[in-house]
Design goal:
The complex is a heterodimer of chains A (about 140) and B (about 400). Chain A is mainly alpha-helical. Chain A is built from 4 helices and no strands. Chains A and B meet through helix 1, helix 2, helix 3 and helix 4 of A and helix 3, helix 4, helix 5 and helix 7 of B.
């Protein structure tokens, strides 16, 4: 450990300086934009943090508390795994599920049956979750 | 706690806000954060490198020569770019979940400690803000959804530097914590054998996921990243196209190739069939106007080249037409010259593109007149478009009006 901390004495400042330079360059590029656009960028960045910290994270927290207090023990792990897989997938799917960018003049864009595909994945995830939960329940019953 | 002396409303609010100790899941904390963070940092690094490559290829970054082959090079780097960004979504969410209690840490009340605390908070805010911005705008751009006023490319490029810079800064600050966390076992001894619903340890007993080990949580996170990437971007991998049920394009389109911008959207649909169309070619030896028949007479080369778009989709086509270098020679240009292509479009950021000399002299760089043996579909650039290997789709200018040979 002492060897690595010795190397860190060099590595940490170096990483810090390079990182700070990258941030500074990015902010410089950003400020080169027209002011109203820069404001819009800042709003989108801050807004997405706010949506996460004030909406997504508390919702996950509440789901966790509900799982801990309402769901039987054998169901909790399968539920957590379902949320970790389906939650992010749902967020990623929003632009195609909503087809917000679709254009009548270009049928080659957003041309898949997205709801069918999305619900198909969710259905597979639910079946696997149910199978996992049933397996855990029968194991919990046979255990002393 | 005793040194703090909040009064009145502030104290009332403070009392109601949770503190880091209010969160009881034993699975949060550095051991989870460091392990997810390694992969999150890697995915941001990969997205950054491929993104800068794309920026240079689009002629917006530094003026450095890029490899002209293999033809699928840009397709591969851009596919990796989108896949890395997509994988980062579940990674970022789990990473933030693992450190969420820190959000409720109370700042020290005075002096140096407060300044340092605020600096660290500020750098984290910058990191998370830039990271979310990149993922949100990148995903929306893939689906051609622009619910904002800023220019996507400039903003995405600027915040890429902020994101990657603040990742490095964060690693610099946290390195001792990261090393310690990675050196510790993933799960505690007794925790490792849990899984049958038995409380893992003191903290595990109250976790909402009672019985979930850290190892299982991490594996589920990797699974989430894999599923998300496959569902959205596997469209570029042969044989997996049908798995990508959330891909922004199926890969179908007129003449077997999808369209990024249609002739109608570009405002050129009405003028394409004008029998008076000529391709104006400007070079050191003078200017030549070529009719479609004259170009067809010079054509004789076909090339199998992909159209690879920044959104990470691509489709191969067999293009027929005149090698760019033949037309360059016609107006006295040399193999050391760049070529500027101009479209019939009157508006649009990509109505003009510059083909660097190393691409212009490549035998597969074509003034394409046919796709799959038929005249180009209007949406593919009729009567004549540029197609070159290993180039971003947006620089493959359609509906050509003019090409000019210029010194590199």
């Amino acid at each position: 450990m002492s060897g690595s901390s010795g190397a860190d004495r060099m590595l940490r400042p170096a990483l810090g300086v390079v990182g700070a330079a990258g941030v500074a360059y990015g902010l410089y590029l950003l400020l080169g934009q027209p002011p109203d656009r820069t404001v819009d960028v800042v709003l989108w960045a801050a807004g997405s943090v706010l949506v996460h910290d004030a909406v997504i994270a508390p919702v996950v927290l509440v789901l966790g508390v509900l799982a801990a207090t309402r769901a039987p023990a054998w169901l909790r792990v399968p539920l957590v795994r379902l949320l970790v897989v389906v939650g992010p997938l749902t967020l990623v799917a929003i632009p195609v599920l909503g087809r917000f960018g679709a254009r009548t003049d270009n049928p080659t864009l957003l041309d898949r049956p997205y709801w069918a595909g999305y619900l198909g994945i969710v259905a597979i995830a639910l079946v696997l979750t149910a199978a996992d939960a049933l397996r855990r329940r029968s194991r919990a019953r046979t255990a002393p | 706690m005793s040194e703090r002396s909040l009064t009145g409303l502030a104290a009332a609010i403070d009392e109601r806000l949770p503190t880091p100790e209010s969160f009881d899941s034993g699975l949060r904390g550095p051991r989870t954060a460091a392990r997810v963070g390694v992969w999150l940092g890697l995915s941001f690094g990969v997205a950054f490198v491929t993104g800068v490559f794309s920026h240079v290829a689009q002629g917006r970054g530094a003026d450095v020569p890029l490899p002209t082959g293999p033809a699928w090079l840009y397709l591969a780097t851009q596919g990796v770019h989108v896949a890395a960004g997509t994988a980062a979504v579940p990674l970022l969410l789990v990473k933030l979940w693992s450190v969420y209690p820190r959000l409720f840490e109370r700042p020290p009340r005075r002096g140096r400690a407060l300044v340092l605390h605020l600096l660290e908070r500020g750098s984290i805010a910058l990191l998370v803000g830039a990271a979310f911005f990149q993922l949100v705008t990148g995903l929306a751009n893939s689906a051609q959804w622009y619910p904002w006023s800023f220019d996507f490319i400039s903003a995405h490029y600027a915040l890429a530097w902020v994101a990657v810079g603040s990742v490095l800064l964060h690693v610099a600050v946290k390195l001792p914590v990261i090393r310690r966390a990675l050196a510790e076992p993933v799960d505690d001894e007794r925790g490792a054998q849990a899984g049958g619903g038995r409380p893992a340890d003191r903290e595990g007993a109250t976790t909402p996921a009672g019985g979930l080990t850290r190892r299982a949580l991490l594996r589920t996170t990797w699974l989430a990243a894999g599923v998300t990437v496959l569902a959205t971007t596997a469209v570029g991998i042969p044989g997996l196209r049908r798995v990508a049920v959330l891909a922004v394009r199926s890969g179908e389109g007129p003449q077997g190739v999808p369209v990024n911008r249609s002739a109608a959207a570009a405002g050129v649909a009405e003028i394409l069939t004008d029998p008076g169309w000529r391709l104006r070619v400007i070079g050191p030896a003078g200017t030549v106007d070529l009719t479609l028949d004259e170009l067809t007479g010079m054509a004789g080369r076909t090339a199998d080249l992909p159209i690879a778009c920044v959104e990470g989709w691509s489709a191969g086509g067999t293009w027929g037409g005149v090698p760019v270098r033949d037309v360059v020679a016609l107006v006295g240009g040399s193999e050391a010259d760049d070529v500027v292509f101009r479209s019939l479009q009157e508006r649009g950021a990509w109505r003009e593109s510059r083909l660097p000399a190393e691409f212009a002299r490549h035998p597969d760089s074509l003034l394409a007149l046919t796709l799959s043996g038929e005249p180009l579909h209007p949406d593919h650039g009729y009567p004549c478009r540029l197609i070159a290997p290993a180039r971003p789709g947006v620089t493959q200018t359609k509906w050509l009006r003019e090409m000019e040979v210029v010194p590199a």
